[in-house]
Each structure stands twice: as C-alpha cells, then as structure tokens.
Amino acid sequence: MDRWALHQLQKLISRVREAYEGFEFHIVYHSVQNFCAVEMSALYLDILKDRLYTFSSNSQGRRSAQTALYEILKGLTCLMAPILSFTAEEVWKYLPQEPEKAESVHLVSFPEVKKRLFGQRPKRTLEQIWEIRGIVTKALEEARREKKIGLSLDAQVHLHLPEKVFPLLQCYEKDLKSIFIVSSVTLHQVRDGKEVRAEVLKADGKKCERCWNYDVSVGHHPVHQLVCDRCVEAIQK
C-alpha cells in the first residue's frame, strides 16, 4: 500500500509539472485536489489510521507509513508552492528538520519524478482489492441501515469469491481487515460463482479499548484485560 501511494505521488508530480509548463493551472488545481480527496483521504489515509495509531512506534509497518507520508507531504508542499505560497511556506516550517533542509520551500528545486518509485507499478492484485473494497463498503452501508452494526469495526466480513479471485486475495488475507476497516475477514471459495459477494455479520468477541477492534482474545490476558493480543504485543514493545 505504501508503494502504491508513492507510485500515485509520482504520477501526480508528472501530471502537475506538465500542467505548469503548459500554463494549464486548472489542471494543477484539479489534480492536487483529486489526489488529496480521493486517493489519499478516502482511501490511503482512511486505511492507514489503524497502523499509525495502534502499531508499536518502531514497528516496520508504522515506520513504512511514516516514511511514505513524509515523502507525500514534502512533494505536495512543493507542488502547491507557486499557487498557495503562504500556506506552503507554513507547512514547510513544520516538516521535520534535515541536515540539508532549505530555509524556505521557495528555495527548493521543483519535485521531479523518482523513476525507482514510478517504475514499481502496483500489482493488479491491489487494484482488485480496491474494487472488492467498494463491494464490502456497500455491504457495510446496507448492514448499517438495517441496524446490524454501528461502526464498520462492529462487523466481521465473509467474502465469497470465485475460483480465479480466491488465490489472489488469500495472499493478503491477514491485511484485509485493516483495508476494509472491519474486525475480521474470512475468505470462502465458490466454485460456480462468478461475482464477489460480501456477507456482513456482527463481529465475535469483545471490543478492544485500544484499537476498537472486536476480538475473541480480549479479556484473556492476566494483566491487560481490556485489550486484544495484538495491542498487548504493541504495549509490551
């Protein structure tokens, strides 16, 4: 996911540089706006919250997320500097200090596409996961309307998948609950099925007071009675 986000940033940089050079400032505006609202806020940042808030501070997952966010923020700040000059300058002052950090964003070279990141195109699997996430989100909304659940974390999702799709998602099964923002995901292979179907049920177990996920491990630890095993591990680290 972090590689995907950095890949999207490189696409944005390429598109915005071309628009600036052609004096098509409306394309700059719409490109940056859509990147922030759709690819970041509605997708990447929404999923990332669990990793940032609940993983241990030095875990690989959290550090990877912080690295990607730093690169994205730095790139965005430079891209919007010619138009939102004062806002970009204020953001720049709050960026972490680096040995070679310029005093002002307006003293920095304009961002260029990093080919090593742009070349790592996201696998088709990830694009399929985004499509399936849309199906799950729709099922969660229906369950919410029917008063089966409140928050999405109140739910467990059973995904019924065609034979061609099942092996692709099986590799990412442990990450799907974070991507769908639910408490658990179980995959079922359907031999005669042609479409993905999401079944939403009330999650098993008790609610962890730290990550808000429902888990059967909550209450079993002799010391940390109110949190799940994953959070116990993070606390101990």
Properties at a glance:
237 residues; 9 helices
What would you say this structure looks like, in words?
A hairpin with a 6-residue loop joins strand 4 (206-207) and strand 5 (214-215). Helix content is 54%, strand content 11%. With 237 residues, the chain is mainly alpha-helical. The protein has helices spanning 2-21, 25-54, 60-80, 85-94, 115-118, 124-145, 166-170, 173-180, 229-236; strands at residues 155-162, 184-190, 197-202, 206-207, 214-215.
Give the structure's gist in a few sentences.
The protein has 237 residues and is mostly helical.
Coarse structural class: mainly alpha
Question: pLDDT below 50 for ≥5 consecutive residues: which ranges?
Answer: none
> How confident is the prediction overall: mean pLDDT?
93
Distance between the termini: 24 Å
Number of strands: 5
Task: Give the number of helices.
Answer: 9
**What is the molecular shape?**
globular
Question: Which helices and strands occur, and which strands form pairs?
Answer:
Blueprint: H1 2-21, H2 25-54, H3 60-80, H4 85-94, H5 115-118, H6 124-145, E1 155-162, H7 166-170, H8 173-180, E2 184-190, E3 197-202, E4 206-207, E5 214-215, H9 229-236
Parallel strand pairs: 1-2
Antiparallel strand pairs: 1-3, 4-5
